[in-house]
């Protein structure tokens, strides 16, 4: 009978211990759940930044590529018209030779001018995109730490002696990361993302102007050739 009573006490003690352990695990998981909520908030913000940047760059590149392609077509048309005019001109050969002496150089020059415009655009886009990626990478560190904040917390406190402090310690860490996200990370992400949006207002007109100048210079040179040959043929 005594043996049965001892076994019963041990069974009850084991059940109580198991129940206590289960409650403690649930307690820790609840804390981790709070951290996960903040983590998901951060990750959602990061995804929005990536998607917004991607959409903006797709549209910006579409416009830049479109203008560059139009410029190439314009240059080719100017070249064809000018060379056709030269071929049909009745001006003396000596005059023709002088008029078209630098034509090949000008063709090469307009190509280089358009290349410089594209290079300028690429440098600015690459630089501002790198700023966004750097900001996201730094922010990702804070977000990732939230995923295992309870496990990492065992480094900072003794779960046997200070179970009542777990919520306070980890809760404070979660709050610190959330506050940092709101005060530092999110404004910084908004700043670098805005720099991407600003490309549409700043870079696009700048590159279009650069391209237009290259085409205009080439067109003016072609006009000089035509005017010269017209004068010589009189």
Explain what the structure shows.
The chain has six helices and no strands. It has 234 residues and is mostly helical. The chain has one domain (35-81, 105-233). Helix 1 (2-88) runs antiparallel to helix 3 and helix 3 (103-147) runs antiparallel to helix 6 (203-232). The N and C termini lie far apart (135 Å).
* Beta-strand content: under 5%
Pairing-aware structural class of the strands and helices? mainly alpha
Q: Low-confidence spans: pLDDT under 50, at least 5 residues? A: 4-19
Largest sheet: none
| Inertia-based shape | rod-shaped
The helix/strand order is HHHHHH
For the secondary structure, the number of strands is 0
The portion of residues assigned to helices is over 70%
| Count of DSSP-assigned helices | 6
| Mean of pLDDT | 84
Radius of gyration, in angstroms, nearest whole number: 35 Å
- Give the N-to-C terminal Cα separation: 135 Å
| Structural domain count | 1
Q: In a few lines, what is going on in this structure?
A:
Helix content is 90%, strand content 0%. It has 234 residues and is mainly α. The longest helix is centred in the first third of the chain and has 87 residues, at 2-88.
Task: Reconstruct the topology from this structure.
Elements: H1 2-88, H2 93-99, H3 103-147, H4 149-153, H5 166-201, H6 203-232
Signal peptide: 1-18
Keywords: Signal
Organism: Anopheles melas
